[in-house]
Amino acid sequence: MDIVNIENISALEQKTMVTVGMFDGVHVGHRHLLAALLEGAATMGLHPVVVTFDKHPRLVVRNTRSDDKPVGLLTTLEERMAALASCGVPTVVMVHFTEALASLTACQFTRQYLLRQLNMRHLLLGYDNAFGSHKGNDFERLPALAAEEGFGIGHDTAVTMDGTEVSSTQIRLALAAGNLPFANRMMGAPYSLHGTVVHGRHVGHSLGFPTANIVVDDPHKMLPAAGVYALKTNIEGHSYLAMANLGPQPTFHQERPTLEAHIIGFDGDLYGQPLTVQFLGRQREVRPFDTPEALAAQLEADKQLIINSYTI
C-alpha cells in the first residue's frame, strides 16, 4: 500500500474514486465502505484512494459543547495504516490536520484537495460521513458542486449489529462500559493495546502472580473500563493467555490506573520489551480485598476461569 502526503502531490494523472474519513478502528462498518470503494472503482475504471488524517480532528479542534471530551483513539496511526493495508487499499493520501484545515468548508476541501490534486471523478461517502468546518459548512452543497465539476457521489449503507449502527463512537461506548464482546464484534477483531513493559512494584510476584506492567505507547489510545480482563499476547512466536488488572489497585491503596498482565505459562524477562495485548473479555470489576491472601485466592480463581473459557 502506498501512503502519500497530500503536500507531496501536485496533481494525479490517474482518475480516482475517493472516500474521506478518519477510519479510527477500521471496524466492520469501515470495511464495508472500503469494499464498496474497491468494487466501485474497479467497475468505473478508476483508481481507489482513501483520504485520511494524521490526527483526529478532536485532538486539534475542540467543540464548544460542555460535553465535548478528548477523544480516545481506537487505533494509533500505525495500527490504522496496517488495517487499511489488510483491506486491500492501494493508496492512502495523508492530510496533516491543522486548525487552518479545520476552517475549510466541505466544498473548499473538495475543490482544493480532492479535485485539484487527486483528480477525483467519484466521491464515496459513508452512511454518516460528513467533513468540513462546522462553522459555515456547506456539506449539503456537494451535489451542486458535483454537477458543476462533473464528478459523481455515492453513499454506502450502514452496518448494524443488534439494532445498533456500527461506528467508532459506539465502539468507544462499549469499551467504556466494559462490553468487550460487543466492542470486538463491531471492531471485527479483539481490541488491542501496544506498550512497553516496565518495572512496577512487584506486588504480583509476591502473591505468586508475576505481572508485566505495561505502559501504553500512545497517551490518546482509549483504555477499556477498569476491570480484570482475559487477554491474548504473542511472545517470540508463541501465543499465551493472560489475565490483567486494568485500573486502580484498591487493595494496595493505588488509585493511579495501571495495566498489569499475568501471562499464563510464561516465565521470562520482558522488561524494556514492546508488548501487544488483545482483550478477549472482561472477567469482573476491580474491587478491594481484606488481605493479600484473599486477593491471591481470587486471582487463582480468575486464572482458572480464563484457562477454561478461552483458547488460543
Structural features, described:
- Helices cover 29% and strands 29% of the residues.
- The radius of gyration is 23 Å and the shape is elongated.
- Strand 7 and strand 8 form a beta hairpin.
- It contains ten helices and 14 strands.
- The two termini are 30 Å apart.
- The protein has helices spanning 28-44, 57-60, 77-86, 99-102, 106-115, 142-149, 168-176, 180-187, 203-206, 292-309, and strands at residues 2-5, 16-20, 47-53, 91-95, 120-125, 152-155, 160-161, 164-165, 191-198, 212-216, 227-235, 238-249, 254-263, 274-284.
Within the CATH hierarchy, at the fold level, what is the topology of the largest domain?
Rossmann fold
Q: Into which percentage range does the β-strand content fall?
A: 25-35%
Low-confidence stretches: none
Largest sheet: 6 strands, parallel
- Which CATH top level class of the largest domain fits? Alpha Beta
Q: Which structural class matches the secondary elements?
A: alpha/beta
Sheet with most strands: strand arrangement: 1-4-3-2-5-6
Listing every helix as H and every strand as E from the N terminus to the C terminus, the arrangement reads: EEHEHHEHHEHEEEHHEHEEEEEH
Helix content: 25-40%
Shape descriptor reads: elongated
* Helical stretch tally: 10
What's a concise summary of this model?
Strands 1-4-3-2-5-6 form a six-stranded parallel beta sheet. A six-stranded antiparallel beta barrel has the order 9-10-13-12-11-14. Helix 6 links the parallel strand 5 and strand 6. It is of the alpha/beta class and 312 residues long.
